[in-house]
Amino acid sequence: MAARDLLLASLVLSCSLLPCYGVVLFSSLQRTFVVTASPAPGQVLKGGVDKITVTWGLNQTLPAGTDSAYKTVKVKLCYAPISQVDRGWRKTQDHMNKDRTCPYKIVARPYSSANKTSQSVEWTVKRDVPTATYFVRVYAFNADENEVAYGQTTDAHKTTNLLQVEAISGRHTTIDICSICFSAFSVLSLVGFFYIEKRKGKRSQ
Length: 205
Ligand SMILES: *[C@@H]1O[C@H](CO)[C@@H](O)[C@H](O)[C@H]1NC(C)=O
Ligand SMILES: *[C@@H]1O[C@H](CO)[C@@H](O)[C@H](O)[C@H]1NC(C)=O
Known about the structure:
Elements: H1 2-17, E1 30-31, E2 33-38, E3 44-46, E4 51-58, E5 72-79, E6 104-110, E7 119-124, E8 132-141, E9 147-152, E10 163-166, H2 177-204
Parallel strand pairs: 1-9, 3-10
Antiparallel strand pairs: 2-4, 4-7, 5-6, 5-8, 8-9, 8-10
The protein binds 2-acetamido-2-deoxy-beta-D-glucopyranose (NAG) (2 copies).
Residues 34, 59, 61-62 line the site of one 2-acetamido-2-deoxy-beta-D-glucopyranose.
């Protein structure tokens, strides 16, 4: 893991030294959308069968012009903290381009001030959505395709109004490719390490 940590550290460092182009931090986004989803929490949704209805709109108490930069809206299904146990990569990363919390796109639509008050979409939960707990998040993007604002069905700690999905096929999860890659990587590094040590040992004899 040391090599990966080093790589990450140097990436972070270079990003803090150079102005990293296009880096958007989630913590810098304004929460401006009011988002709701049905069914009510507690009901278990079956992948490939059941539907989620999402309704969203600009918070009407915000000053006029809040949404002047909004060009598109993307609605996404996101892992809630309960789904993150043993799956660290599902955790929210502040760097939007590293964040893997919201892997399922429900819909993308152009944003128009004419229909900002309330829009909704009905979405059948895809078959490949793993058994886990979710919430819905709506992002607003500007003309440069950077996130500028959001709204979500849950509170800031992601504990309320969570949706429960149960994969229908009995496949508990689509394989967590990342964790497999990382374990393969650690095994390879270990093997490499022992090989190098062995050669060193031979040479010094
Ligand atoms: C709408 O915005 C106001 C002012 O920022 C805030 O106090 C309120 O909680 C927001 N409403 C919702 C439903 O998010
Ligand atoms: C909102 O307006 C945009 C642009 O006029 C349009 O493309 C989009 O489909 C509209 N959304 C709805 C739900 O009518």
